[in-house]
Amino acid sequence: MQIDTNADIFAIGDAHSDYARLASAMKAAGLIAGVPKKPEDVKWSAGSAVLVVTGDMIDKGPHAIDVLRLLHSLQVSALAKGGRVAVLAGNHEAEFLADPAAPKGEAFATQLKAGGIRPSEVAACKSDIGEFLCSLPFAARVNDWFFSHGGNSGGRSLVQLADDLQKGVMKDGFATKQLIGGGSVSGVTSQRKGRRAALDRRSLSGLHRKAATDQLHGGSRREAYRRGSRSLAGQVCGWDGEGTGRDVSKFSGCCF
């Protein structure tokens, strides 16, 4: 996903199924009009601003389904008001989609079962939740900012990243090392220097609202940024639906 904008840019990550705290933080930052009782009733209130959600919406907390439906509904509401909400997949989403019985997806799978939803169907891109998860991009370029969950680009250009991600997913599905494991774009990595570190430092001077620094869950932080330039260029990749042994026609988010 690639976005050029002159509007304000916000970013938030690692909600980890904490619906109430996620919605409260977004309300405090002026992104939504209020905390809705039903996630489908959320209303965007930030005009033409761009919000990037950097993954790990599921697991650890009790309300993953509500978090996903909140973000999906917010995308629709934001578009209707001239804004954008870019929701990215993190390693927890990638690992669940690769294997719905994976340890990092256990809490999510339990919640799905409690809601009468089969985890295997969600991982196969079925149901509204499955279609949403399978449509998520793994990274986004907004002006001159690069966003991903793990943050390790390995020094590659956007074109190289898109090509590597596409080849990896077409070959191995969501289990590709491009998405899961140390050093991947979406996975946990010890290489937290360079661009990601720069994002963390610069975020402190570019906050729109003090509330945007509130912790969400387990020490995770929200980051909000001012406008950037449009210096980076890249390429949107596409899927041909072959090579993974599963239906990838719904991977509309693709690599970027």
Which helices and strands, and how do they pair?
Blueprint: E1 2-3, E2 9-12, H1 19-28, E3 50-53, H2 64-80, E4 84-87, H3 91-98, H4 106-114, H5 119-123, H6 127-134, E5 139-142, E6 145-148, H7 158-172, H8 195-203, E7 223-225
Parallel strand pairs: 1-5, 2-3, 3-4
Antiparallel strand pairs: 2-7, 5-6
CATH-level-2 architecture: 4-Layer Sandwich
Q: Report strand order across the widest sheet.
A: 4-3-2-7
Largest sheet: number of strands, sense, barrel closure: 4 strands, mixed
Order of helices and strands: EEHEHEHHHHEEHHE
The total count of strands amounts to 7
Q: What Rg is obtained from the alpha carbons, in whole angstroms?
A: 17 Å
CATH top level assignment: Alpha Beta
- Spans of at least 5 consecutive residues whose pLDDT stays below 50 are 188-256
Mean pLDDT: 75
